[in-house]
Design goal:
The complex is a heterodimer of chains A (327) and B (341). Chain A is globular and about 85 Å long. By secondary structure, chain A is an all-alpha fold. Chain A contains 14 helices and no strands. In chain A, helix 8 packs across helix 9 and helix 9 packs across helix 12. A three-stranded antiparallel β-sheet of chain B has the order 2-1-3, with no helix packed on it. In chain B, a hairpin with a 2-residue loop joins strand 1 and strand 2. The chains are: A mainly alpha (327), B mainly alpha (341). At the A-B interface, helix 1, helix 7, helix 8, helix 12 and helix 13 of A face helix 6, helix 7, helix 12 and helix 14 of B.
């Protein structure tokens, strides 16, 4: 196991370095500098910005050095945990990201909770009553959901619950004057605002998770030990909870590795539609203003999360399934 | 081939998908006749003017008619000849609005039959249906060409890794695939689309961007298939007979691994359409006034009161992605020899 993990870690490290190279290359080889975008969008600013000032700006942010020097400098500072300074906000990227991280984490965990809370029961029920009308109808509905673009769900939800019925908020994280609310009311208000975005994000993964639950449960239900347990007279709730569900949940560990990148990417669209002040919205903003340090930091962070997910998946497998430990 | 097609038509889901896809192709090709602000045919001063000919890509197969040529040289000629401003008879397209022209009188009009704004108007006074009809071509083109690029890249990269194996595979191909998989694809697409000068951001660059970032699943399938196939006797036999790598890949490995790749490509088309509309929705895809389903839908964010802007474009995206998913599933079953009987 130690050997396996060691190999895995080395390959992850290589992948991580390659990822930083790709991020760096994509951002640096794009035509223009952040200041040239500024020039293009505000013609008057160009005439006011003296060439010497422009050179000074390039120098201040090291944009005049050769690519390799810039890359080495960026990588070294990345390894020491410093992410540079945001061009547009003029403060350290780490503090910008630190500010945006909690809302995104909150939204993603809420989403994950909704996803599991809805999909596991649906999957379990359709596995237990295989080929029943419920199984067939939920199967087709979920299949349709799979093709549903998240941004369209978001638009429809806003139109229905936000605009027509006016029962759910769809803008930002807090109501007006939320600062004066008590702790309980503040938290409730937060969940109230997070409900629509989280639901929209959850619906995307719902189809996949429900079908996954169904198929793993069906697989487990036909295992020998389940039949043995049945033959020995274990039945009903105990059979399902202790024997079937427990081992059916093992593959769920792997899912986090798969779902994590999806959620990171999905939150870009959902956060921008719902004006949720998280990492996704920050990323889009950084991309519009060509805030290189923020773009690079977030891309690396995203890729890092994905790699972390894959390591955790392996570890989870070791922990959950005794059979893997013998390898 | 015939058997596969018969199976696709027989199955309910894929039959529906084939009908929808054929319909979308029809709409994409005949878009200029379905929606536009210029008459298709007119009769003016005793002359019959088949104006729709100018709207068509296949126009080049016909000789331009005399009247159009004459009018190009002398725009006032017809008016002088008949003495009237408007033609006596003219036939408009079923949706008589241009996808790009803005009409101040029609700003945010709800759907109506009488004024022929069947799907309503956006807050610039552009007809939604007309924009959707003309956007169909963009979505289909991006879907197919992006997947073509991704398929070619994926087959080459995956094929090299799968055929040669060893160090080439473990050092180059596998690392490349792993790096690409570590990025959330949509994240990467947004980044690339956003660092490109908006001037060059059109459907062609989108095709390339989406193609360059979504080859990984095809590469993985090709690699896996090649790994499996190259150990099989007939490939070994070809090798013993002195066949070169190029010959074996093209004549033995590729044709036999085509089935799973074809299925992945079909799903990929839906994915590419989804990616394009997502990008356009965020404003880093097809730039207005050029229509695309995604950028028509994104207009709803500026006027939440207009439900029709939110409903119809999203439905087009949904129905086409659904169709490619259904087709992909049916294709997978049809190409699987176990399912055939």
């Amino acid at each position: 196991m130690a050997l396996f993990l060691g190999k895995k870690l080395i390959s992850l490290l290589v992948t991580f370095i390659l990822i930083t190279m790709v991020v760096f290359a994509v951002v640096k080889f794009a035509p223009g500098t952040p200041f040239s975008v500024f020039q293009a969008s505000q013609e008057k600013a160009v005439s006011r910005m003296a060439p010497s000032d422009y050179q000074e700006l390039l120098k201040k942010y090291d944009l005049d050095k050769p690519m390799l020097v810039q890359y080495r400098k960026w990588l070294l500072s990345l390894l020491t945990g410093s992410l540079g300074e945001s061009f547009s906000e003029r403060r350290p990227v780490s503090s910008v990201i630190g500010e945006r991280l909690p809302p995104t984490l909150f939204l993603n965990f809420f989403t994950l909770f909704l996803m599991l809370a809805i999909s596991v029961p649906i999957g379990a029920l359709s596995a237990l009553r295989k080929d029943s009308p419920f199984d067939k109808v939920s199967g087709s509905v979920l299949y349709g959901l799979y093709a549903l673009p998240s941004f369209w769900i978001a638009v429809l939800m806003i139109l229905f619950f936000g605009v027509t019925l006016k029962v759910l908020p769809f803008f930002g994280m807090h109501s007006d004057g939320a600062k004066d609310f008590g702790a309980i009311r503040y938290t409730l208000d937060l969940f109230y605002h997070a409900f629509l975005p989280a639901l929209c994000m959850a619906l995307g993964g719902l189809a996949f998770l429900s079908r996954f639950t169904r198929s793993t449960l069906l697989e487990v239900m036909h295992q020998d030990y389940v039949r043995t347990a049945k033959a020995k007279g274990v039945g009903g709730k105990k059979l399902f909870l202790d024997h079937i569900l427990r081992s059916a949940l093992i593959p769920f560990v792997t899912l986090f590795g798969l779902i994590l990148p999806e959620m990171v990417a999905g939150s870009v669209i959902i956060e921008s539609v719902f004006s949720w002040p998280g990492l996704g919205q920050l990323y889009l903003k950084a991309v519009y203003t060509r805030d290189y340090p923020v773009i690079m930091a977030e891309s690396v962070l995203g890729a890092f999360l994905v790699l972390l997910g894959s390591v955790l998946t392996d570890l989870g497998y070791f922990a959950a399934d005794p059979r893997t430990r013998r390898r | 081939m015939k058997a596969v097609f018969r199976l696709l038509v027989k199955r309910k889901g894929s039959r529906f998908a084939l009908i929808v896809i054929a319909f979308l192709f029809f709409v994409a090709y005949f878009a200029p006749v379905i929606a536009g602000s210029k008459p298709l045919v007119a009769s003016h001063g005793g002359l019959f003017i088949p104006a729709f000919r100018d709207l068509f890509p296949f126009n080049r197969f016909f000789k331009p008619d005399d009247i159009s040529l004459r009018l190009q040289q002398d725009p006032d000629w017809l008016r002088q000849k008949s003495g009237a401003d408007l033609p006596k008879f003219f036939l408009m397209p079923p949706v008589p609005y241009s996808p790009v022209e803005t009409r101040l009188d029609d700003i945010s009009l709800p759907p109506g039959l009488r004024n022929r704004h069947f799907f309503g108007c956006d807050d610039n006074g552009r007809d939604i249906l007309s924009r959707l009809v003309h956007g169909t071509k963009n979505s289909l083109l991006v879907g197919f060409i992006a997947v073509g690029i991704a398929g070619l890249l994926g087959m080459i990269i995956g094929g090299v890794g799968g055929y040669y194996g060893g160090l080439v595979d473990s050092l180059v191909v596998s690392r490349l695939i792993e790096v690409m998989l570590s990025f959330p694809t949509f994240f990467l697409i947004i980044t690339i689309a956003a660092v490109i000068d908006p001037k060059y951001l059109n459907i062609y660059t989108l095709m390339v961007i989406i193609g360059l970032t979504s080859w990984t699943s095809i590469a993985r399938y090709t690699r896996g298939e090649f790994f499996r196939l190259r150990e099989i006797d007939y490939v070994q036999a070809a090798k013993v007979q002195g066949a070169g790598g190029y010959h074996i890949i093209l004549n033995h490995l590729m044709p036999n691994s085509l089935a799973p790749i074809l299925v992945t490509l079909t799903f990929g088309i839906g994915g590419a359409i989804l990616a394009e509309s997502g990008l356009s929705f965020l404003g880093v895809g097809v730039q207005p006034p050029e229509p695309s389903w995604g950028n028509v839908l994104s207009m709803v964010q500026k006027s939440w009161g207009s439900w029709w802007i939110g409903l119809f474009p999203g439905f087009m995206i949904f129905i086409s992605v659904l169709s490619y998913n259904l087709l992909g599933d049916a294709l997978r079953d049809a190409l699987d020899p176990k399912e055939r009987n």
